[in-house]
Amino acid sequence: MTANIELPPSQHYINGEWVGGGDRVIPVINPADGTQIGEIPSGDQHTVGAAVSAARAAFHNPHWRNMPPMVREGLMHRLASLIEENASQLGQIESLDNGKPIAFSSSVDVPMTITWFRYFAGWCSKLSGKSLSPALQPLDSHHAYTRRQPVGVVGAIVPWNFPLVLAAWKLAPALAAGCTVILKPAEQTPYSALKLAELISEAGFPPGVFNLVLGDGQTGQALVEHPGINKISFTGSTAVGKSIVRSVAHDLKRVTLELGGKSPTIILPDADMELAIPGAAQAVYANAGQICFAGTRLFAPRKQFDRILEGIASVAETFKIGPGLDPETLLGPVVSQKQMDGILARVDDSVRHGASLFTGGTRHGDSGYFISPSILVTEDRQNPAFREEFFGPVLCATPYDDLNDVAALANDSSYGLAAHVYTSSLQQAHQLSNSLDAGTVWVNTQLSPDPNIPFGGFKQSGWGRENAEDALDHYTETKSVIMKVDC
Ligand code: NAD
Ligand code: MN
Fold this sequence. Notes:
Layout lengths: L11 E3 L2 E3 L4 E6 L6 E7 L2 H16 L1 H4 L3 H17 L1 H12 L3 H23 L6 E2 L9 E9 L2 E5 L5 H15 L2 E5 L6 H13 L6 E3 L4 H9 L5 E5 L2 H10 L6 E5 L4 E5 L5 H13 L9 E7 L3 H13 L19 H16 L3 E4 L14 E4 L6 H4 L6 E7 L5 H6 L3 E2 L1 E5 L3 H10 L4 E4 L14 E2 L2 E2 L4 H6 L2 E9 L3
Parallel strand pairs: 7-8, 7-10, 8-9, 10-11, 12-13, 12-18, 13-16, 15-16, 18-19
Antiparallel strand pairs: 1-2, 3-4, 5-6, 6-22, 11-21, 14-15, 17-20
The chain binds nicotinamide-adenine-dinucleotide and manganese (II) ion (MN).
Nicotinamide-adenine-dinucleotide (NAD) binds next to helix 8 and helix 9.
């Protein structure tokens, strides 16, 4: 099934050139069958150094720095059009590399990527400072204003669950703000970023504005430690997020972090179950559970608990499990052997600690990294199923008796990325939305990020916000200019 998918060349893209280099080679595996589809070089300090030099030079090059915003906007729209023209290849690459259903990559990943570039293209010409009146000076004696200047060279480090989308979430605002970028895709899923580099080159961005360095965590670490980078934008695990914060303590690079989650799906007794049950199933099983804001903890009224779990399990039974490239597939493999083994070990650990397995909990088939849609039940808030991010198709379900306890139950987590609420009461919807520790609350809908709505985490789910105008705050520095005019 992989034979007719054209993969881009596996090289770094630095200063407008495709280059080799690195201290190791990393195999890239098809998660649907465990076979090797290619290999990438792992960039070392020299590779990172070359990319930083190119990005710094491009940042100061008047061709980019003084480019009128509408011209930059035009380049971004041209890139969006090229992604559109190459949509089917990009969808196939994403499904081959990550394992996600082609029905999903072609309707979610690729269209979102296009949308994000178009949305942020519009910001190029809208980003402005303000004219201000000093509070301590006579009117007309001073002129004061702020400027929004690009933060500089951005190191963008992305994970494997939405390789193209998450690259766009960082690149689009960075380019709109006038920054230059070094992207490091995840070692498991490099190919869509390589295709994107081809299209960025074709769109006509000046050399060095966008650079791509391949490699694993060591390459990421080299980016984080490089003094020539002004800002790191990271999406991935909370553990690596914390290590990045420790690393940047020595030079105080700007950092934004989109990290893990253990987001609740809360079904209230008055919810429309026709909406809530399939919604809860989608929230945890879409993309094989590999979504940072997946609804992985379910809270349902005790009286309706069994009926709701049976409903979710029967929705899950309708998902055809198979390789991502099969157009019928609704549930693909998880990304790697390591992820599969880790998820199954956590299921076992949860059961050992007293959780009961309602359904699933095992590998599906014996080739590829498939896990059956699973539900664990526990009321023990210390159980691993309740606390830990599994990042797979595993729901932890907990019944509740009193509606007044639900927010505290849901908030009992070190994470705070999102929450999914189902109710037909407007009052309950607002009250719960106010009290949940979550960067995003979806009510009677789920999993629908929007480029014009900020996204990010409370607590250990991260620092800063992506998307919307908020994202641009993290790719700009505000400069205040105060000028005496009556001298
Ligand atoms: P990871 O955090 O190790 O990897 C994410 C990215 O960071 C990759 O590009 C990786 O090469 C890079 N990286 C790794 N170590 C680094 C370091 N020390 N410095 C700089 N960059 C580094 O994630 P993983 O090991 O691939 O997955 C482990 C767990 O992370 C998952 O099970 C899941 O819980 C979580 N995760 C979260 C998201 C998310 O969307 N928030 C995405 C992927 C994984
Ligand atoms: Mn890792």
